[in-house]
Structure formats: structure tokens, C-alpha cells
Structure prediction request, 166 residues.
Amino acid sequence: MAPRDCCDCGATAGPLGLCADYYHAILVDEQLDPRMRPWHAVVVCVYLLQHPSRGHEKHLDGQFRMLQYYLDRGLDALLRFAAHQVARNNHRARSGYDLRPLEPYEPLPPHGPPERFRTSFCDLPHDGDGGFVSDGHDAYGQRIRDLAEATAESWKSIGPDRAAPG
Prediction:
């Protein structure tokens, strides 16, 4: 398979292209459709955990824990957590982030990333008229949750004892 047909997460390109093409299309659609925005943080975490070379290594552990928080507590809890973080990081508050709610969750395994994920952005259905939400926002939210579950499962399957490559 040619390199342009396979994503660095192991996914085969879909009709829109590689995962980055899907990710950017979702970000554009979020700007046009406010009802997609609640899943923004989940979309970003999933994308960066499936494509860690596109993010910052120092943030991956927090993104992995935030993804677990979302899977454990749901979207509403994640949105409250994010709003609390934004309020704490306000220049007037000067109190900084409060990451204590993420402490109970597993840290990012040190020997990743996984080679493949059960599902990826390239698996998301998209049509020209309705984009990612042609069958409704609830269905879109469930697909994003499925992506989050697949991402967490793959990272957790590595475990802390997998030998480092090389």
C-alpha cells in the first residue's frame, strides 16, 4: 500500500483521505455547527493519542487521563471539568489548572503508541450534504465515543511492561 493510502495510526485512508483530513474537516464543521462543539475536547484527545507525533509529548498523559475521565463520567462531566479549568486559568484568577480530578486514571503507558486502533477517524461516515452529522448529532456523539473507547483500549493494551522498541 502506498504511504499516502495508510495513516501513521495504521488506518487505511477513507473517502476524505487520511485521519488528518477527517480531523480538519471535523474542526471546520464544528465552527459551522455549534451542536458538534461539545465533543471538541474528545476529538482533539483522540486525534492526538492516535497520532502522537502531531501533538506535544508533555500533554499526552493528561489527554489520555482526560479521555478516561470522559469515558468514565460522560460528556457533561467533561464539559464541566473543562469549564472549571478555563475559569481557573483566567488571568484574573491566577490559580492555574486543577488536574486532581484526573489523578485516579491510568497514566499513559510509556512504550506507545499502539500500532493500530479498532476504529479511526478514517472510519467516520461523511456525506456531502450532512457531513459527519447526516444521521443526527446523537449518532455523531456515539461515533466519537466509540473512537474514544478504541483509543483508550489500544493504549491500555500496551501496559506498563511492554518492552521499548529497538
About this structure: Residues 17-158 form one domain.
